Amino acid sequence: MPNRKGFDESLDELRHLLTAMGDHVIEALEDAVKSLQTMDTAKAKAVVDNDYRLNEMEEKIMDIGSRLIVTQQPVAKDLRRIIVAFKISSDLERMGDLARDVAKVTLRMQGSSLNKLLVDIPRMSDIVIQMTRDSIQSYLDENTDLAHKVGNDDDQVDHMYSGMIRELHQHMLENAADGPQVMLLNLTGRYIERIADHATNIGESVVYLVTGRRPDLNN
After folding, report:
1. Is a pLDDT exceeding 90 seen at residue 100?
2. CA–CA distance from 6 to each of 61, 68, 141 (Å)?
3. Can you give the pLDDT at residue 202?
4. CA–CA distances in Å: residue 58 to residues 21, 42, 155, 200
5. What is the DSSP string of 114-137?
6. Using 50, 70 and 90 to split pLDDT, how confident is the model at 161?
7. Is 12 exposed, middle or buried (0-12, 13-18, 19+ CB in 10 A)?
8. Structural domain spans, the chain
9. Which CATH superfamily is domain 4-211 in?
10. What pLDDT score was predicted for residue 1?
11. Is the pTM for the entire model greater than 0.85?
């Protein structure tokens, strides 16, 4: 490899950018759910407006990784480090899009009030935020045990989402006028459940980075 020191410095930059993307996703999801709980449209709009930062960081990761492949011609685990950085940045960018979609639900409900107490959505969000933290930490530490934990936590989110759908369906049967709002809350739960799926994808990428084999942690 032509310049090992320069290669390692660029890998550190990739890790820094991925950590920043993870922090941004967590903040966006926290603010999006809070905006829904309090019907704070200004907070929701800020989440939507700041989404471009994730796109910028993803593009920077693509630029750095592509340059490394062309100039350093990495092989084996060094090549996997770059491929995994591409994959994780893509998952994080999509997670940010889904957090933005949650914020858009608040904007779509502007002028109305919640007719149903939000319980499951904040609980799901708390678990997904921890999954996101764990997935990034598993990447930084190359910790496959923590990566597998993220996959196990996804099962909990799936279970909560299924229960939430049943409860919302029952609420709509008993309160037909709340139908439009119930549909939006259903969508919100779906967005958060999909963020959990992407966090699990990151766990899979970590296992691939360490072992060279990509497991299915999302089943």
Report:
1. yes
2. 16, 9, 21
3. 98
4. 8, 26, 28, 19
5. -SS---HHHHHHHHHHHHHHHHHH
6. very high
7. exposed
8. 4-211
9. Phosphate transport system protein phou homolog 2; domain 2 (1.20.58.220)
10. 55
11. yes
